[in-house]
Amino acid sequence: MWMEIGTINDIPKLGARVVESAAGDIAVFRTADDEIFALYDRCPHKGGALSQGIVHGKAVACPLHNWNIDLNTGDVLGPDNGCARTVAVSLNGDVIRLQMPDVKTQDFKAQDLKATGTNG
Amino acid sequence: MKEKLVVIGNGMAGMRTVEEILKHDAERFDITVFGAEPRENYNRIMLSPVLSGEKSYEDIIINTREWYIENDITLFAGDPVTVIDRDAKTVTSARGETFAYDKLLLATGSDPFIIPVPGTDLEGVVTFRDLDDVNRMLDAAKKGRNAVVIGGGLLGLEAAVGLKANGMDVTVVHLMDTLMERQLDEAAGYLLASELKNRGLDVRTKANTKAILGSEKVTGLELDDGTVIDADLVVMAVGIKPNVTLARQAELDIARGVLVDDQMQTSDSDIFAVGECVEHRGATYGLVAPLYEMGKVLAEHLVGGNGVAYQGSVTSTKLKVTGVDVFSAGDFSGGEGADDIVFRDASRGVYKRIVVRDNKIEGAVLYGDAKDGAWYFQLMKDDTDISELRDTIVFGQAYAGGVQADPSAAVAALADDAEICGCNGISKGDIVTAITENGLSTLEEVKAHTKASASCGGCSGLVEQVLALTLGDEYEVQTVKPMCGCTSHSHDDVRRLIVAKDMKSIPEVLQELEWSTPDGCPSCRPALNYYLLCAHPGEYVDDSQSRFINERAHANIQKDGTFSVVPRMWGGMTSADELRAIADVVDKYDIPAVKVTGGQRLDLFGVEKKDLPGVWADLNAAGMVSGHAYGKSLRTVKTCAGSQWCRFGTQDAIEMGIALEQMAWGSWTPHKFKMAVSGCPRNCAEATIKDFGVVAVDSGYELHVGGNGGIEVRVTDYLCTVETEEEVLEYCGAYMQLYREEGRYLERTAPWVERVGLDHIKAHVVEDAEKRAGLYKRFIASQEALQEDPWAERARGGKDKHEFTPLKVVA
User: Fold this and answer.
1) For residue B266, what are the CA distances in angstroms to B106, B248, B253, B269, B405?
2) How many CB pairs under 8 A join A and B?
3) B271-273 and B103-106 as β-strands: parallel, antiparallel, unpaired?
4) Which CATH class is domain B550-631?
5) Helix, strand, coil % in chain B, rounded to nearest 5
6) Which of B205, B208, B257, B742 is the most buried (most CB within 10 A)?
7) Is the CB of A11 less than 8 angstroms away from the CB of B807?
8) DSSP B416-431
């Protein structure tokens, strides 16, 4: 299901914002040349919030341990291995739409996404 | 009794001759030097980088005052000789010093050529010859906007690029239709002009100056076609002429220059001349290599060498403009019987032309890729028959004879007499001999022993290759470490260039310094953001997208994505009101954990990001501000009870700590910065493992620097003892500013102090009151822009609202 979630101006260049959904947080990124990408807000390493990382080129560095994630494919770049889940995005004029996951048909539970502990 | 040698001219030619004499026989002469400039001997060809800000004057000094003393040379700097009395064999200086000589050396150099048009005596019209000229230009660049450089030769273009680097709008006015027409052919001149236009210079060829306009101060320049160009500064760089004033007064034979024979002897057998002032076999020279060759010959002749003769020089030229690679040598006019071998790559902007006559290289022009210049120059000087190489010669040495494109293979293939350093005429064999005989292992040592790469520095890469080849595995390459994978520049280079080129934003730095990535990486962007912020306090607009999340959100991210919040507790003091407010915040926002930190404050753990502005608003309401526990910034100032309470306390540690924290809070530093104040030598505040520690004693305060209690524990170095609280503040501010200006991003003070040395810090902070005051002033000035509570700006001010709210919440 495609859903309008905001405009490109809502996200700073080389920055990210979060869409909170039943399937977990989705990080929406904007690059220097105004491309938009979306990933589940969860680093494949230790579950760090990718939305909080530094965006550079078409990649984001996770704020916890500096793993670099390809925004286009979700693949971990460099020596580390793993893959963050991508979400399909469309940019029509200024308007950003995401293909929102249907929670029921997902092969994972929303609960898994919150499973990294809360420090009490 | 030693023979008396008097040298007139303290420049490159005169002093090189003296160095050569000392090398052969240090006891031979009693040497006296007169120089017109009031300073030591410096490398005049490096004035361009001084103008552009890439080097400082100190970097280009060749012989320091100590060198003159060590070698027993009497130097009269700033006191030119005005009279030579050949009958009495004496010279007399402007201040009236009269000295007898047995041998006299004229090394008076050259004067800039002044074109005969009206207005050359106006204020704001300068030449480009010495350090005073450079200072005049730098001064003009601060006041004015528009500069015109007359002359599109080597010197004029270096001046133009230097002035542009200082922020001026620069027009180059050149009489001929090609820039650097004596060194470049039309094609290379065209490429150079396009490159300079791309860099924002206005280049006008075939432009003849008619008059310099203005009444007292220069206001513009008029060309003979009537065009008027506005100017606050006019630089005359159309050429040089030998300075023969003294020689003429002494009635020596002169033509264009002072006439000398192959032993550099003038028409008077006791008077010799070297450098730009001479004319030898009909030629005059304005480049450094021939001057050094003359000096070498003369020195050998003076110490009794037989049969040495100067044969004239074949010269080559390189333009010293960062990022423009130009080389030329020999005659490239071509003509009957000459063949051109030409290589062009328009998209890369590469042009190479080799002029061949009778299978020998007659001249070469390289633009855009000049790394093979030295090789072509050598083939040319040696008259090498290149018929075997002809098919591939234009691709350079790496492809000649099927040698691999490996730079060290190319250097290995060079013959022993191949020249490595063109400025100083040092061959590969000279360098290898110096390395093996003296056990040299670094570029600096080779530079000191042989002078190779000591002048323009263009051959330092080649010298390193020779070192590597000679020493094999023992050689450790001492190359500078680049900041990150996006650039070949080191941290120090980038900082220097940000200041020198007055760069104001990250995109500007990435563009100007030719970053290899479109927008940097998580390693260089935060560093650049800090360097720019430090260079332009109050002016630079902080780029929050180039900060780590902690500094962007003004709180510390935790492993579960929540944040922790540490309010400032000045000098470790708190109150019932503050504690009550903290307790209320903890309840209101359901904050799961509160911990006492090692820095005498409280850390609230597990705060949701969206709650941060609310938490801050409540803490602000109770008078608390950000503790910057998340930043590369001033963290905490730890104190002991001090004389307010403790029976051993000698000074009021709490009050001192609060005063330090109130001065320094909010400042951004290369890495985190922690302080502590102990009220007596029992040192309960552990001040000797802090970045800046104060230990009170009966007579005042001991200051300690460069400590660290982290991964690698380091005890502070003792800096000095001061008497008053005001002095503690001034020394602390000065020290922090020195660290802010010199520390590399993410370098703590402990490794910084070890890198630059405690003496360096003492020299700036302790021993020189003027330097200390300057540093302190700059620190306080930058604090004016930084001491605004980032929490309040975001809590009440609503700054960066996007940071703390989701883009959308989907049910």
Assistant:
1) 9, 12, 7, 6, 49
2) 98
3) parallel
4) alpha beta
5) 35, 25, 40
6) B257
7) yes
8) TT-EEETTTTEEHHHH
Q: What is the ipTM of this complex?
A: 0.85
Determine the distance in angstroms separating the CA of B808 from the nearest CA of chain A, rounded to an integer: 5
Nearest-Cα distance to chain A for B510, in Å, is: 13
Of B275, B254, B260, B244, the residue nearest B17 (C-alpha): B275
DSSP A82: -
Q: Comparing C-alpha atoms, which of B512, B521, B571 is closest to residue B545?
A: B521
Fold of A2-102: Rieske Iron-sulfur Protein (2.102.10)
Q: Which pLDDT tens digit goes with each residue over B551-588? A: 999 999 999 999 999 999 999 999 999 999 999 999 99
Q: What is the layout of strands, in order, in the sheet containing A68-70?
A: A54-56, A59-61, A68-70, A76-77
Query: Where are the domains positioned within chain B?
Result: 3-110+242-302, 125-238, 491-547, 550-631, 634-786
- Give the residue from chain B lying closest to A42, CA to CA: B561
Residues whose CB falls within 8 Å of the CB of residue B136, separated by 6 or more in sequence, listed in order: B126
CATH number of B634-786: 3.30.413.10
What pLDDT is recorded for position B479?
58
Which residue's entry shows tokens 């330092």? B460
Q: Whole-angstrom Cα distance, residue B302 to residue B308?
A: 10
Q: Hey, what are B104's tokens?
A: 């006299």
Residues in chain B within 8 Å Cβ distance of A45: none
Nearest CA distance, B557 vs chain A (angstrom): 8
Chain A: residue whose CA lies nearest to B544: A15
Residues A5-34: tens digit of each pLDDT: 999 999 999 999 999 998 899 999 999 999
Which class would CATH give B125-238? alpha beta
A45 touches chain B (CB under 8 A): no
Q: What tokens does B315 get?
A: 């010269």
